[in-house]
Design a protein that fits this description.
Blueprint lengths: L1 E6 L10 H4 L6 H21 L4 E6 L17 E3 L18 E7 L17 E6 L2 E3 L1 H11 L4 E7 H10 L4 E10 L2 E4 L2 H17 L14 E6 L2 H7 L5 E3 L5 E5 L3 H15 L6
Parallel strand pairs: 1-2, 1-4, 2-3, 4-7, 7-8
Antiparallel strand pairs: 5-6, 5-10, 8-9, 10-12, 11-12
Helix pairs in contact: 2-5, 6-7
Length: 274
Protein backbone atom coordinates (compact mmCIF):
# COMPACT_ATOMS: atom_id res chain seq x y z
CA UNK A 1 0.00 0.00 0.00
CA UNK A 2 1.27 3.47 -0.97
CA UNK A 3 0.23 6.43 1.19
CA UNK A 4 0.22 10.14 0.37
CA UNK A 5 0.38 12.53 3.31
CA UNK A 6 -0.27 16.29 3.30
CA UNK A 7 0.91 17.99 6.50
CA UNK A 8 -0.33 21.42 7.52
CA UNK A 9 0.54 23.20 10.76
CA UNK A 10 -2.47 24.99 12.27
CA UNK A 11 -4.07 21.70 13.33
CA UNK A 12 -0.99 20.36 15.11
CA UNK A 13 -0.98 19.56 18.83
CA UNK A 14 -0.57 22.56 21.12
CA UNK A 15 -0.28 25.18 18.36
CA UNK A 16 -2.92 27.84 18.93
CA UNK A 17 -1.93 31.16 17.34
CA UNK A 18 0.28 32.85 14.76
CA UNK A 19 3.34 32.82 17.01
CA UNK A 20 3.46 29.03 16.60
CA UNK A 21 3.08 28.90 12.81
CA UNK A 22 4.83 32.03 11.45
CA UNK A 23 8.55 31.54 10.84
CA UNK A 24 9.49 34.98 12.19
CA UNK A 25 7.76 34.49 15.56
CA UNK A 26 9.24 33.27 18.83
CA UNK A 27 7.22 30.04 19.14
CA UNK A 28 7.80 28.83 15.57
CA UNK A 29 10.84 26.61 16.16
CA UNK A 30 8.97 24.80 18.93
CA UNK A 31 6.00 24.50 16.60
CA UNK A 32 7.93 22.93 13.73
CA UNK A 33 9.50 20.37 16.08
CA UNK A 34 6.05 19.32 17.33
CA UNK A 35 4.77 19.31 13.73
CA UNK A 36 7.62 17.05 12.64
CA UNK A 37 7.15 14.66 15.54
CA UNK A 38 3.41 14.46 14.85
CA UNK A 39 3.96 13.79 11.15
CA UNK A 40 6.57 11.18 11.97
CA UNK A 41 4.20 9.36 14.32
CA UNK A 42 1.79 8.85 11.41
CA UNK A 43 4.54 7.90 8.95
CA UNK A 44 6.05 5.37 11.36
CA UNK A 45 2.66 3.84 12.12
CA UNK A 46 1.96 3.56 8.38
CA UNK A 47 5.21 1.71 7.75
CA UNK A 48 4.64 -0.49 10.80
CA UNK A 49 1.20 -1.35 9.36
CA UNK A 50 2.77 -2.66 6.16
CA UNK A 51 2.78 0.36 3.87
CA UNK A 52 5.48 0.21 1.21
CA UNK A 53 5.78 3.90 0.40
CA UNK A 54 4.86 7.09 2.26
CA UNK A 55 5.23 10.38 0.43
CA UNK A 56 4.95 13.43 2.71
CA UNK A 57 4.18 16.88 1.32
CA UNK A 58 4.99 19.81 3.60
CA UNK A 59 1.86 21.92 3.14
CA UNK A 60 2.18 24.95 5.41
CA UNK A 61 3.10 28.51 4.36
CA UNK A 62 6.53 28.39 2.63
CA UNK A 63 6.28 24.58 2.86
CA UNK A 64 9.75 24.06 4.29
CA UNK A 65 8.82 23.45 7.92
CA UNK A 66 9.34 19.71 8.45
CA UNK A 67 12.74 18.60 9.72
CA UNK A 68 13.72 15.84 7.32
CA UNK A 69 16.44 14.48 9.62
CA UNK A 70 13.77 13.69 12.22
CA UNK A 71 11.55 11.63 9.89
CA UNK A 72 11.43 7.86 9.46
CA UNK A 73 14.36 6.95 7.17
CA UNK A 74 12.09 5.46 4.49
CA UNK A 75 10.02 8.65 4.19
CA UNK A 76 10.04 10.64 0.96
CA UNK A 77 9.49 14.38 1.55
CA UNK A 78 8.41 17.15 -0.81
CA UNK A 79 9.59 20.42 0.70
CA UNK A 80 9.76 24.03 -0.44
CA UNK A 81 7.82 26.34 -2.72
CA UNK A 82 6.49 27.43 -5.11
CA UNK A 83 4.64 24.17 -5.88
CA UNK A 84 2.30 23.95 -8.89
CA UNK A 85 -0.23 22.05 -6.77
CA UNK A 86 0.62 23.44 -3.35
CA UNK A 87 -0.84 21.26 -0.57
CA UNK A 88 -1.43 18.30 -2.91
CA UNK A 89 1.86 18.37 -4.81
CA UNK A 90 2.88 14.86 -5.82
CA UNK A 91 -0.55 13.30 -5.34
CA UNK A 92 -1.58 11.00 -8.19
CA UNK A 93 -3.27 7.71 -9.01
CA UNK A 94 -0.36 5.59 -7.73
CA UNK A 95 -1.50 6.07 -4.12
CA UNK A 96 -3.97 3.84 -2.30
CA UNK A 97 -4.96 6.43 0.29
CA UNK A 98 -4.28 9.92 1.59
CA UNK A 99 -3.76 11.25 5.10
CA UNK A 100 -4.29 14.92 5.97
CA UNK A 101 -2.39 15.80 9.16
CA UNK A 102 -2.33 19.09 11.08
CA UNK A 103 -5.47 20.32 9.31
CA UNK A 104 -7.88 23.06 10.39
CA UNK A 105 -11.42 24.19 9.65
CA UNK A 106 -12.31 26.34 6.66
CA UNK A 107 -12.66 30.12 6.63
CA UNK A 108 -15.64 31.73 8.42
CA UNK A 109 -16.09 28.66 10.60
CA UNK A 110 -15.31 27.97 14.23
CA UNK A 111 -11.90 26.36 14.76
CA UNK A 112 -8.33 27.03 15.84
CA UNK A 113 -6.73 29.38 13.27
CA UNK A 114 -9.52 28.55 10.81
CA UNK A 115 -8.95 29.93 7.30
CA UNK A 116 -8.87 28.95 3.63
CA UNK A 117 -5.43 29.44 2.05
CA UNK A 118 -5.20 33.16 2.92
CA UNK A 119 -6.93 35.27 5.53
CA UNK A 120 -8.54 37.34 2.78
CA UNK A 121 -10.87 34.48 1.77
CA UNK A 122 -14.30 34.44 3.38
CA UNK A 123 -15.68 31.43 1.49
CA UNK A 124 -14.76 29.11 -1.38
CA UNK A 125 -17.25 27.08 -3.38
CA UNK A 126 -17.02 24.21 -5.84
CA UNK A 127 -20.38 24.52 -7.57
CA UNK A 128 -22.70 24.94 -4.57
CA UNK A 129 -20.50 23.14 -2.04
CA UNK A 130 -18.56 25.29 0.42
CA UNK A 131 -15.02 23.97 0.77
CA UNK A 132 -11.84 24.87 2.57
CA UNK A 133 -8.36 23.47 2.14
CA UNK A 134 -9.51 20.08 3.42
CA UNK A 135 -12.40 19.77 0.98
CA UNK A 136 -10.54 21.14 -2.03
CA UNK A 137 -7.61 18.80 -1.40
CA UNK A 138 -9.97 15.85 -0.94
CA UNK A 139 -11.54 16.64 -4.33
CA UNK A 140 -8.10 16.56 -5.97
CA UNK A 141 -7.42 13.21 -4.32
CA UNK A 142 -10.80 12.02 -5.62
CA UNK A 143 -9.89 13.11 -9.15
CA UNK A 144 -7.12 10.50 -9.00
CA UNK A 145 -9.38 7.90 -7.37
CA UNK A 146 -7.58 8.22 -4.02
CA UNK A 147 -9.70 8.14 -0.83
CA UNK A 148 -8.83 10.35 2.13
CA UNK A 149 -8.47 7.76 4.88
CA UNK A 150 -7.62 9.98 7.84
CA UNK A 151 -7.79 13.63 8.87
CA UNK A 152 -5.91 14.76 11.99
CA UNK A 153 -6.31 18.21 13.54
CA UNK A 154 -8.66 20.06 15.83
CA UNK A 155 -12.23 19.01 16.60
CA UNK A 156 -13.70 21.36 13.99
CA UNK A 157 -11.50 19.98 11.22
CA UNK A 158 -12.68 16.52 12.23
CA UNK A 159 -16.34 17.55 11.99
CA UNK A 160 -15.72 19.10 8.57
CA UNK A 161 -14.02 15.91 7.36
CA UNK A 162 -16.77 13.66 8.66
CA UNK A 163 -19.43 15.74 6.89
CA UNK A 164 -17.53 15.50 3.58
CA UNK A 165 -16.15 11.96 3.61
CA UNK A 166 -18.30 9.10 4.91
CA UNK A 167 -16.40 6.65 7.16
CA UNK A 168 -13.22 8.75 7.27
CA UNK A 169 -11.07 8.22 10.36
CA UNK A 170 -10.43 11.39 12.36
CA UNK A 171 -7.85 12.09 15.06
CA UNK A 172 -8.66 15.05 17.32
CA UNK A 173 -5.50 16.36 19.01
CA UNK A 174 -7.07 19.57 20.39
CA UNK A 175 -10.51 20.99 21.11
CA UNK A 176 -11.47 24.51 20.06
CA UNK A 177 -12.23 27.07 22.75
CA UNK A 178 -11.80 30.07 20.44
CA UNK A 179 -9.93 30.79 17.24
CA UNK A 180 -6.72 31.22 19.23
CA UNK A 181 -7.39 29.06 22.30
CA UNK A 182 -7.56 25.27 22.53
CA UNK A 183 -7.59 22.45 25.03
CA UNK A 184 -4.83 20.23 23.67
CA UNK A 185 -3.35 16.84 24.29
CA UNK A 186 0.35 16.76 25.07
CA UNK A 187 2.59 15.81 22.13
CA UNK A 188 3.26 12.40 23.65
CA UNK A 189 -0.45 11.62 24.01
CA UNK A 190 -1.13 12.92 20.51
CA UNK A 191 1.53 10.64 19.03
CA UNK A 192 -0.09 7.67 20.75
CA UNK A 193 -3.49 8.70 19.40
CA UNK A 194 -2.14 9.23 15.89
CA UNK A 195 -0.48 5.82 15.86
CA UNK A 196 -3.76 4.17 16.86
CA UNK A 197 -5.83 6.18 14.37
CA UNK A 198 -3.39 5.51 11.52
CA UNK A 199 -3.70 1.79 12.11
CA UNK A 200 -7.50 2.12 12.21
CA UNK A 201 -7.56 4.16 9.00
CA UNK A 202 -5.51 1.61 7.08
CA UNK A 203 -7.67 -1.24 8.38
CA UNK A 204 -10.81 0.74 7.42
CA UNK A 205 -9.63 1.56 3.89
CA UNK A 206 -12.22 -0.58 2.13
CA UNK A 207 -15.06 1.43 3.72
CA UNK A 208 -13.94 4.83 2.38
CA UNK A 209 -14.66 6.03 -1.14
CA UNK A 210 -12.85 8.85 -2.98
CA UNK A 211 -14.59 12.24 -2.91
CA UNK A 212 -15.41 12.51 -6.60
CA UNK A 213 -15.27 16.10 -7.92
CA UNK A 214 -17.69 17.51 -10.51
CA UNK A 215 -16.44 17.08 -14.10
CA UNK A 216 -16.58 20.79 -15.02
CA UNK A 217 -16.57 22.63 -11.70
CA UNK A 218 -17.43 26.25 -11.12
CA UNK A 219 -15.03 27.82 -8.63
CA UNK A 220 -16.33 30.83 -6.69
CA UNK A 221 -14.21 32.65 -4.12
CA UNK A 222 -15.71 35.25 -1.82
CA UNK A 223 -13.04 37.64 -0.59
CA UNK A 224 -13.03 39.76 2.54
CA UNK A 225 -12.92 43.09 0.69
CA UNK A 226 -13.54 44.53 -2.73
CA UNK A 227 -9.90 45.24 -3.49
CA UNK A 228 -8.99 41.58 -3.11
CA UNK A 229 -11.73 40.64 -5.56
CA UNK A 230 -10.47 43.24 -8.01
CA UNK A 231 -6.96 41.81 -7.86
CA UNK A 232 -8.17 38.20 -8.20
CA UNK A 233 -10.32 39.05 -11.21
CA UNK A 234 -7.22 40.13 -13.15
CA UNK A 235 -6.65 36.45 -13.88
CA UNK A 236 -7.87 35.67 -17.43
CA UNK A 237 -11.11 33.69 -17.54
CA UNK A 238 -12.49 35.03 -14.28
CA UNK A 239 -15.71 36.97 -13.74
CA UNK A 240 -16.11 39.44 -10.88
CA UNK A 241 -19.75 39.09 -9.84
CA UNK A 242 -21.30 42.56 -9.81
CA UNK A 243 -21.58 44.39 -6.48
CA UNK A 244 -20.00 41.52 -4.55
CA UNK A 245 -16.55 40.39 -3.49
CA UNK A 246 -17.06 37.07 -5.32
CA UNK A 247 -14.89 36.04 -8.27
CA UNK A 248 -16.00 33.12 -10.46
CA UNK A 249 -14.04 30.79 -12.72
CA UNK A 250 -15.43 28.03 -14.96
CA UNK A 251 -12.87 25.23 -14.88
CA UNK A 252 -12.30 22.32 -17.21
CA UNK A 253 -11.62 20.00 -14.27
CA UNK A 254 -10.78 20.14 -10.58
CA UNK A 255 -7.04 20.43 -11.27
CA UNK A 256 -7.62 23.58 -13.31
CA UNK A 257 -9.91 24.90 -10.57
CA UNK A 258 -7.21 24.24 -7.97
CA UNK A 259 -4.52 26.10 -9.88
CA UNK A 260 -6.95 28.94 -10.55
CA UNK A 261 -7.59 29.16 -6.82
CA UNK A 262 -3.85 29.40 -6.16
CA UNK A 263 -3.42 32.22 -8.67
CA UNK A 264 -6.49 34.13 -7.49
CA UNK A 265 -5.48 34.00 -3.82
CA UNK A 266 -1.90 34.99 -4.62
CA UNK A 267 -3.15 38.00 -6.55
CA UNK A 268 -5.58 38.92 -3.76
CA UNK A 269 -2.73 39.07 -1.26
CA UNK A 270 -1.36 42.09 -3.12
CA UNK A 271 -4.16 44.22 -1.75
CA UNK A 272 -3.00 46.82 0.76
CA UNK A 273 -4.96 48.47 3.55
CA UNK A 274 -4.96 51.88 1.87
Amino acid sequence: MNVYMSVDMEGVTGLVDHTHVSSDKHNYERGRIIMTEEANAVVTAAFDSGCKEVLVNDSHSQMNNLLIEKLHPETKLISGGVKPYSMVQGLDETFDGAFFVGYHARASMKGVMSHSMIFGVRNMYINDAAVGELGFNAYVAGYYGVPVLMVAGDDQAALEAEALIPNVTTAVVKETISRSVAKSLTPEKSKQLLKKKTEEAIHNKKNVQPLTPPEHPTLRIEFANYGQAEWASLMPGTVHEEDTTIVRFEAGDILEAYRAMLVMTELAMRTTFC
